[in-house]
Amino acid sequence: MYLSSFENKIVIITGNTGFKGSWLTAWLKQLGAKVVGIALDPPTEPSHFTVSGLSEGIVEHRIDIRNQHELEEVILSAKPDYLFHLAAQALVRHSYENPLETWQTNVLGTLHILEALRKLEKPCAAVIITSDKCYDNVEWIWGYRETDSIGGPDPYSASKGAAELAIRSHIKSFFPKETSMVRIASARAGNVIGGGDWAKHRIVPDCVNAWSTNNIVELRNPHSTRPWQHVLEPLSGYLTLAIALANRSELHGQPFNFGPNAQQNNSVLELVKQMALHWEKVRWQDISDVKAGQYESGLLKLNCDKALHYLQWHSVLGFEDTVRMTAEWYRAYYHQPAQIAAMTSAQIVAYTAIAQQQCLAWAQ
User: pTM of the entire structure?
Assistant: First the structure.
């Protein structure tokens, strides 16, 4: 399971202009893949995709995944060896404001991908990314396994649970394990942080936006805990899963969790305090008693034993290094913006070196 497997391979990434999609684009370009991007315009200004100059050297298609005809046309003409589906409406708060858009994008969009793959007459390994919030979160203290109940109380979580049901149904109905040239697996991860995320209502972008202008960041849920992980952690899982899927038919149809180790579950306040160690003139304010918002889960973490057993994958960064790398990227952006593409590349190299030191197969 070596990452050199992607060299000269045609790889489709949906949502490649988004936060995770842009980092995956940068990594696959570094590996020598022929990247085909399917996405809307970058969702924020600035964006990691734009400031890192990631449009250079790839084929881009500005398509809404709700447009089935255009999506199928691109996928079938590209003839991909690998496909990573990351395009989504990914914000919980936005799902309350636009529930119909959330359901259409996350469920129908996923079905459109599956329908295109059903017509693809060549081998392809497809990793469809949903979310850790696909689980029916009952706030228990242990990590969710891939066999636990899915669904959730908010439109975003429910739509991701429904997407998982659609994936399972389509695989059972149209992609028989014994004969299908297309192999599909789903991947579940969440609470990803790292440089280049400027999405609204996320704690790290809220911090850097406030602190870069000498303002106070407001903490809505300072005591909510999350399994924070650097963006490169789940991406290494997706890449590892794709290579394994291409070579091992028994993984076809399987879901996998990708998250940090079980002990790495820190509160929003702990994250902010750790960020503050790498930034000057930081201030924050607890507004949890002032502004009551929509429901957001208080405790959520994943059990990743399945990925360890079947893929020999585990996370490599501790909480402190995760936050340090995140803060260093943003500091570089605000102090040396012309060097930010080099910073993205350097962090991928550094992360891979740490994985090599830990003897993970994918990094060798």
Answer: 0.96
